[in-house]
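Thread: Newbie trying to understand structure tokens

Hi all, I'm a second-year student working on a class project, and my supervisor (Dr. K.) asked me to get a predicted structure for one chain before our next meeting. I've only ever worked with sequences, so writing a 3D structure as a token string is new to me. If someone could post the tokens and maybe explain what I'm looking at, I'd be very grateful. Here's the chain:
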Amino acid sequence: MNGDRNMEKRKRFVRACVVFLLAVLVAFPSDMAAIQAKAAGSTGKSKILIAYFGRFGNTNFGKNVDATSSASIVLNSGKKQGTTEYLARQIQKQTGGDLFRIQTKKKYPADFDKLVGKNHEELDQNYLPALKTKVKKMKQYDIIFIGYPIWATDAPQAVKSFLKAYNLEGKTVIPFCTHEGSGSSGTYKQIRKLCSGADTLDGFSVNAEKVKTKSTQEKLKSWLNRVDVKSRSAKAVPITITIGNRKLNGVCYNTALGKQIMKKFPLKVTMDEFGGREYYGDVAKKDRPTKKSKGKLGFVNGDITYCFENDTMAIFYNQSDQPDLSMRVNCIGRVTSDLSVFDKLDDSVEIVFDYKK
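---
Reply by user tm_fold:
Sure, no problem. This is what the structure looks like when written as tokens:
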């Protein structure tokens, strides 16, 4: 008898659980869909796009081409990839985001000498090749990484075709490139000019032959840490930075910390030059934010930061490749105007941050 009663209790309990789970599924279908999507490995709609161009995927290479006969190809888990594509995939691993290969309608020649001739022809004629692929719903992306190899100390014309095809105003553009010893060759400035109205950061460059080394991976991780895509993916609020009779443009990120800072606008801070890389100054006690965050030991040129360790704000304008910070800083915004103005300022200046009228 006791066994029958216990069995009946268990049956009633199981039936109650089933009813409860069905009620949850009916009441919260969108939540369950999100859980299922996550379980399937979906990241949903991303605000980050990682677009890249390279020879591999845009060239009629023969079936026998290998990573040893072409400096632009590497093996990754047994699969052939272009060096710029490999770098793009490493960035995706660390930031999330959607990968997009820039492809031209006409393939480039596999013969290196013919490729060089074709590239010079495009440069001399300022020819922009037609593209085969297009990004759907570009508006959804706030941050756009743009990757490319250096061709004849320049960005390939296909990259310029891509950038000119979209309105990137208000977005953050972050270049990265592979090269064979030339470095970025001033291409970041080219990208900045092509992306009118966007906030273009200084990028990351690596010798194509070293793209898979441990040293490169460590440098890439450090650079991405300084870039801090989480903060930059927040809505950017246009602001002005007034220094005497100079008025610069900038943005303040609509993060929890950024909101606290903007509540104090117009915010006046006396800043002193330090080390040829930054202007920093104490924030008045009444203007200091209360909700603290950890921050990072790094920055990107143009960053406006707040340091909770000494309650200072700073504008970094140089040396992002050698940050050498002893205190953690939180990125709250960016100066989007030409940073060369900071080379001409006095050692101590009064800076006013305010909403752009």
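A couple of things are worth pointing out once you decode it. Residues 22 and 185 are 61 Å apart (CA to CA). Residues 2-27 form the longest helix (26 residues). Feel free to ask follow-ups in this thread.
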